[in-house]
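Please check the following.

. . .
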Amino acid sequence: MARQLRLEKIGFHHIINRGVERRTIFIDNEDYKKFLEIIDESRETYAFTIHSFCLMSNHYHFLLELQEENLSLIMRQINSRYSIYFNNKYKRVGPLWQGRFKSFFVYDENYLTSVIKYIEHNPIKANLTQEIGQFPWAMSSKKVNLECLDFELIDSIDLQQKLNTEELQKIDALFTAKLKIVDNKILKKTKKEIYNYFEKNSREIAIAKSIEDGYLQTQIAKYLQLSVVSISKIYKIYKQKSKLFETLKNKGIFWSYNKDITYKEVGETLFVEYLLKYADFYDIALGFELFGKRSIKKIWEEKVMRDQKFIKTNLMIARVFFNMDTESSYFKEMKNARFEKLKLLAS
């Protein structure tokens, strides 16, 4: 999947990063302190302010306000310096972070209260503490006082109140928003009317696109006259298919296509065809779980079964997945419909 454009505009950014394989990145108090010291020291080089933070054992959140367009430089310094410290201390090698950090530009400052509550309530959500202010490595505890911290916003919010439905929707909108730059201002892209998603896409892809563009599952369920549970299940399976597609792409199966191509662009038919032809047994088995035997059989019969280059594969698929009592000669004797058609045209 193509990387989303990194927005470095002056303003508020919600930053998230995790340890590789979700491993612990803060093992003792010294680690937490060192990370915060690195943030504070980075402020001497780059102009920014922290309005909220929470350091969990395997990831961190903070709300950072940029005063210059230098977000990537700031985060590169913070993450690389802490990675060097951590690897030296614990005698390890290799990357510490799961990938590049995630950042969400707060395009509407009315969302700031929701973002801060979301960050500061992380320890409560994880059952690490029962009340705001008890977790030492969250800004609301006020147990850390650094030059880069500004408590004005956090002091103006009643953090004892949990996030309500409207605030949760704001957080979801922030995480899923598609943004654009117009006249040097960052604006949220206007969503298409929901019916537009279903005109040219399969139902699965249409549901995925509408969710990713900010529609709530309740809105999609109402439009399709389905239950929210059904929409949730369809989207969950879609994400599993996308993950399998990325796995196969990383194995080189889609080498002839653009490296940024996605499952949405390839579509079910071509994906299943390549899955059956080139994937290993376990990936094929997972494909059967996700797409269903009926859908895969239809594509197999149309795209793969008559291909003489895949006789052994077809025999395995027939016997293992379709319980067909057949021999390889069955596939050898089949005529390739496409080949026969080309032969007729050439004659």
DSSP finds 17 helices and six strands in the chain. Residues 54 and 122 are 7 Å apart (CA to CA).
